[in-house]
């Protein structure tokens, strides 16, 4: 993983993104704030849907809630990816060698795999107003909550380890 990340860092550096992210006083702080905003959008929206699936707020219609909040989560993910690239560009070599950053990427991969599996099941089974989540779907929602909290926690720890 380290060699791939070093290659990405080199590519971003060659494209001039490292100097732009580091050399402009406002780019890095704005990217950092956007990254946090992306977390709030993503984890906030997905977290509410996941908690509803797990069993909270039974009176809220699950399908309508999911339809309303999923676009916010997807937008948050897009903000995260774009701002994360800027943050990575500013310090790519150090991050490429960081075990904590590697752990964040592994957790991200796991959460995205879980989300893809969830979505596959969701499309096949969640069709009616009275949809009741199955045990595997509830476990996937709990896994999602745990993984996203892990991603956010490990992401904050990057600065310290």
Description:
With 161 residues, this protein is an all-alpha fold. The protein has one domain (2-157). The protein is 82% helix and 0% strand. The chain contains seven helices and no strands. The chain has helices at residues 2-14, 17-23, 27-54, 62-90, 92-96, 99-125, 135-157. The model has no long low-confidence stretch (mean pLDDT 89).
Mean pLDDT: 89
Q: Largest sheet, described in full?
A: none
Number of helices: 7
The end-to-end span amounts to 18 Å
Radius of gyration: 18 Å
Briefly summarize what is shown.
It contains 7 helices and no strands. It is mainly α and 161 residues long.
Sum up the structure in keywords.
7 helices; 161 residues; mainly alpha; single chain
Write the layout of secondary structure elements.
Elements: H1 2-14, H2 17-23, H3 27-54, H4 62-90, H5 92-96, H6 99-125, H7 135-157
Helix pairs in contact: 2-4, 3-4, 3-7, 6-7
């Amino acid at each position: 993983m380290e060699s791939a990340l070093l290659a990405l860092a080199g590519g971003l550096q060659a494209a001039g993104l490292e100097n732009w992210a580091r050399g402009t006083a406002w780019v890095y702080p704005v990217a950092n704030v956007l990254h946090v905003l992306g977390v709030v959008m993503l984890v906030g929206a997905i977290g509410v849907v996941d908690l509803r699936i797990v069993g909270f707020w039974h009176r809220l219609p699950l399908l309508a809630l999911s339809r309303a909040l999923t676009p916010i989560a997807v937008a948050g993910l897009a903000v995260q990816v774009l701002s994360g690239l800027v943050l990575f560009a500013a310090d790519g070599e150090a991050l490429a060698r960081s075990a904590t950053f590697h752990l964040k990427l592994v957790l991200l991969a796991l959460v995205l795999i879980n989300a893809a599996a969830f979505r596959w099941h969701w499309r096949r089974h969640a069709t009616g107003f009275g949809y009741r989540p199955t045990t595997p779907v509830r476990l996937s929602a709990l896994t999602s909550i745990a993984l996203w909290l892990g991603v956010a926690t490990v992401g904050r720890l990057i600065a310290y380890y």
